[in-house]
Design goal:
By secondary structure, the chain is α+β, with helices and mostly antiparallel strands. The chain folds into 2 domains: 46 residues, no CATH class; 66 residues, no CATH class. It contains 1 helix and 5 strands. The strands form 2 sheets. It has a 3-stranded antiparallel sheet with strand order 1-2-3, with no helix packed on it. A two-stranded antiparallel ribbon has the order 4-5. The two termini are 35 Å apart.
Length: 122
């Protein structure tokens, strides 16, 4: 793991400096809280670890369900709408929806929508 020391307003460039993949900027530092800004193309996923883990878990569960459907251990067509731990997400967290095409051997798709947190006006 590479570790940098940065001050507020300083950046880390990811990829080729002439044509970077993205930039990470230290937006603010207040006490033990650091706000980090990410500037990446829309096709590059940037997730908090807990959200990445949730997506990975949902993907694994969906793949297992798809495998079961393909082997005939579950019904013919597969349709999963939410369900399971964290499907609706914690308050202020992501809402995850799983959808699958109909038919045998369908490949599930995970769609995560991050809902903005309500601010307390501070």
């Amino acid at each position: 793991m590479l570790v940098f020391t940065r001050r507020e307003g300083e950046e880390v460039v990811i990829g080729d400096p002439r044509n970077p993949i993205g930039v990470v900027r230290i937006a603010t530092i207040r006490g033990d809280r650091v706000r980090i800004a990410f500037d990446f193309p829309k096709d590059v996923q940037v997730n908090r670890r807990e959200i990445a883990n949730q997506i990975a878990d949902e993907t694994t569960a969906a793949a297992a369900a798809g495998s079961a459907a393909a082997t005939g251990t579950a019904g013919g067509s597969m349709g999963v709408a939410g369900g399971g731990a964290g499907a609706s997400g914690p308050a202020g967290g992501p809402s995850v929806r799983m959808a699958a095409a109909q038919g045998d051997g369908a490949t599930p798709e995970i769609v995560a929508k991050i809902q903005p947190r309500a601010t307390s006006g501070h």
